[in-house]
Amino acid sequence: MSSAKVKTGSLWGKSKDDLKKQLVDLKTELGQLRTQKVVGGSSSKLTKIHDLRKSIARVLTVINHNQRSQLRLFYAKKKYLPLDLRPKQTRAIRRRLNKHEATRVTEKQKKRQIHFPQRKYAVKAEA
Hints:
Elements: H1 8-11, H2 16-40, H3 44-74, H4 91-95, H5 99-103, H6 107-115
Helix pairs in contact: 2-3
């Protein structure tokens, strides 16, 4: 078995199938180590278990990142994005009017602006 720490840099270039296969291998090895620990293994098994759990997390992180990037490409030209792909921001920012909605003016406001424009005052400078 591998039992060595998995480097994330080496995972990015791998295909989905290779990542899945590596994940299965890591999980089976973790199961074996856990049974050995119950039977009565050395304390070195604990550090190996820790390293394996972290390696599994790294592999899953790469798989999920690749999956999300593929989904982003798929939804790039679509009208709506799934909620988990949208920017999180804050609740207030998400509910705020967008730029187009904020600059819209009603007919009545247009007429009022044309007929009653903002007055310009000239202030005489003291010499």
